[in-house]
Protein: Phenylalanine--tRNA ligase alpha subunit
Organism: Paludibacter propionicigenes
Amino acid sequence: MKNRIKQLLEEINQLAAGNQEELEALRIKYLSKKGEISTLFNDFRNVANEEKRDVGQLLNELKNSAQDKINELKDAFGATTNTENKPDLTRSADPVKLGTRHPLSLVKHEIVDIFSRIGFTVAEGPEIEDDWHVFGALNFPPEHPARDMQDTFFIEQNPDVLLRTHTSSVQSHVMATQKPPIRMLFPGRVYRNEAISYRAHCFFHQVEGLYIDKDVSFADLKQALMYFAKEMFGENTEIRLRPSYFPFTEPSAEMDISCNICGGKGCPFCKHTGWVEILGCGMVDPNVLENCGIDSKVYSGYAFGMGVERITNLKYQVKDLRMFSENDVRFLQQFESAY
């Protein structure tokens, strides 16, 4: 192998190329994954142990020499090309169109910005999680239907590894590692085994919020959500809170806003009620606090969670959320002015 390395080193020192095509051919011959030097590196494992140190040094010198030589020739061609400065007559006369942010990204950033004005910061976590952080720490009983195969995408079982069904899993991590006060948002993508329609998808995006401190009340939660609704949808937006149930909050509520697609008159999107549910919320269950190492007798808190697609539907009056993932440029171009 040493003789072959020396032979290649002599060849590389004598390299010359008349144009860019010849230079690229030389690069492929010596430096590509299937080139001469890569072949030698693959054969290196067959070298005797007592020779590996010397042969390894020679191989590295060979590779560096080849790279230096190719770069030297490339710089020479670059200098020649720059002096010519000829226009490319094959280019289109139309200007290159620049992209813009996706409407879901626009709305997610707006949600984060609104809550950041009242002290919330952002935390993110993994999309592949374990059962404890997604369900167990959040007070889901073992027999809860959310754990069923028809609702959750499991990767492995015993131990359970799954795609997170909500970004509440990030709350579990934060509460277990940080001491109150906690005032944070948790944006991200989540997955649920649902039939795809104009109102639902098997993946979607959430922004959840968590506030834990001493003497936090439901009135604090209501005021924060009222502030958010008016900042996001306008001063005339009305909200209503309906009693509900979630394993991780008690008491719990669903929050509706007056439908701004039909102006409250009734349409298919609001199911002809004039109201659209946009988020769930409630006071953090004491069991959740204790599961995450927070003394529920000293601290209390509230949590909420919303789907970014639902908020985007309402804000931009998009009636079919499947359009967000179809990558139709004609649809996305409508949001350039919102950038």
The longest helix spans residues 52-84. The two ends are 59 Å apart (CA to CA). The chain has two domains: 2-84, 103-338. Residues 136 and 177 are 16 Å apart (CA to CA).
